[in-house]
């Protein structure tokens, strides 16, 4: 199946939005003058919600009609594992190496002590993306815990007849909605139960629903959906405080950002299917989509390193220094992401495809 240029561009924009949100926080912490970036940039963390919707869409788009069977399901899961884990292990290892160099142990001992989590347990569960009381060693990995959970359940769906899969997703969504109504959800998936009931899983299912709609030929409402999605996104950005830690926050972001991005994903793919709009997507944004996973995992490490070198090593204090930092730091992160993609991520994916074909 040919690549959807619109989806690749959206993936790239999602990664950049998350990067800019963290750039604002890093600049505010490391610059003596508090930084020049507006605090509103923190809403860019909603790029995670867009990633979840896109993931649900792509899984149905590429595998939703796969004939049922253990071999096909195994091929799918193997591909997902090899797509997620090797790059995650690379950057999680870099983070562990930093802790070892800076503090003598390969984890954040102070944080783990406050949570009552052992260091070895934390490392094992972080590298395997198993939910526990602490965030993974590289904090952005919390989203990968949800990704792998979705892939595992979707693998199970591939054992079902094709026409049953949508109904299984309806049931899946109904279980989560019941948990929300019963106030049985949590702010963070710190256990298997909280992972299963986490509200943001609905965003994957929204993306899956969008893919089934477009596969069924429902593409004529693209412009209307785009208008609704953009207005919904603007409203959510204004009304939702993404720094909130209350129990209802994951529900707010799911029904705010998640629904907005479901409309936007539907609109952009429908336009690409009905017209030649996909060809109009600039090649750079498609490439940015290719690099998006590497960018998502490396950006905090790169931004923090550039910030430390710039503000501490060079004694940068003036506003002009802030301008230079916010200009070069994102470019550095994108450059590292591109190199990582070509030198590590792409070769690993190519090797895994050959291995998958031999194994299954």
> Can you count the helices?
14
Query: What is the share of helical residues?
Result: over 70%
Computed structural class = mainly alpha
Distance between the termini: 20 Å
The tally of domains stands at 1
Low-confidence stretches: none
Q: Could you give a short account of the major beta sheet?
A: none
Which descriptor suits the 3D outline?
globular
Say how many strands there are.
Answer: 0
Computed over alpha carbons, the radius of gyration is 21 Å
Helix-strand sequence: HHHHHHHHHHHHHH
Strand content: under 5%
> What is the residue-averaged pLDDT?
93
SSE inventory with pairings:
Layout: H1 5-30, H2 47-63, H3 70-103, H4 109-115, H5 119-128, H6 142-157, H7 162-181, H8 192-196, H9 201-215, H10 222-239, H11 249-274, H12 283-290, H13 292-313, H14 319-359
Question: Can you put this structure into words, describing what you see?
Answer:
There is one protein chain. With 360 residues, the chain is mainly alpha-helical. It has one domain (5-359). Helices cover 74% and strands 0% of the residues. It has 14 helices and no strands. The chain has helices at 5-30, 47-63, 70-103, 109-115, 119-128, 142-157, 162-181, 192-196, 201-215, 222-239, 249-274, 283-290, 292-313, 319-359. The chain is globular and about 60 Å long.
């Amino acid at each position: 199946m040919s690549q959807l240029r619109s989806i690749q561009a959206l993936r790239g924009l999602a990664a950049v939005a998350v990067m800019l949100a963290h750039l604002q926080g890093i600049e505010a912490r490391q610059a003596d003058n508090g930084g020049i970036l507006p605090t509103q940039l923190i809403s860019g963390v909603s790029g995670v919600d867009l990633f979840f919707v896109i993931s649900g869409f792509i899984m149905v788009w590429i595998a939703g009609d796969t004939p049922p069977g253990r071999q096909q399901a195994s091929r799918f899961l193997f591909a997902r594992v090899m797509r997620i884990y090797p790059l995650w292990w690379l950057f999680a290892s870099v983070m562990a190496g930093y802790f070892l160099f800076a503090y003598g142990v390969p984890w954040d001992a102070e944080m783990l002590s406050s949570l009552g989590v052992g260091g070895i347990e934390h490392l094992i569960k972080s590298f395997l993306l198993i939910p526990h009381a602490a965030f993974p060693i590289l904090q952005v990995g919390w989203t990968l815990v949800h990704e792998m959970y979705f892939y595992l359940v979707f693998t199970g769906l591939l054992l079902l007849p094709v026409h049953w899969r949508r109904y299984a997703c309806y049931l899946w969504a109904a279980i989560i909605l019941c948990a929300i109504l019963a106030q049985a959800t949590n702010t963070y998936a710190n256990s298997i139960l909280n992972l299963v009931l986490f509200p943001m899983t609905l965003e994957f299912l929204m993306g899956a629903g969008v893919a089934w709609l477009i596969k069924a030929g429902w593409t004529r409402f693209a412009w209307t959906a785009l208008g609704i999605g953009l207005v919904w996104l603007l409203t959510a950005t204004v009304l939702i405080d993404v720094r909130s830690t209350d129990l209802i926050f994951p529900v707010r972001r799911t029904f705010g950002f998640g629904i907005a991005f479901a409309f936007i994903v539907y609109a952009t793919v429908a336009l690409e299917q009905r017209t030649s709009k996909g060809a109009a997507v600039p090649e750079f944004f498609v490439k940015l989509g290719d690099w998006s996973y590497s960018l998502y995992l490396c950006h905090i490490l790169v931004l923090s390193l550039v910030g430390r070198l710039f503000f501490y090593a060079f004694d940068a204090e003036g506003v002009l220094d802030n301008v230079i930092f916010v200009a070069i730091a994102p470019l550095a992160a994108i450059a590292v992401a591109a190199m990582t993609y070509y030198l590590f991520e792409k070769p690993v994916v190519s090797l895994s495809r050959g291995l998958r074909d031999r194994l299954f």
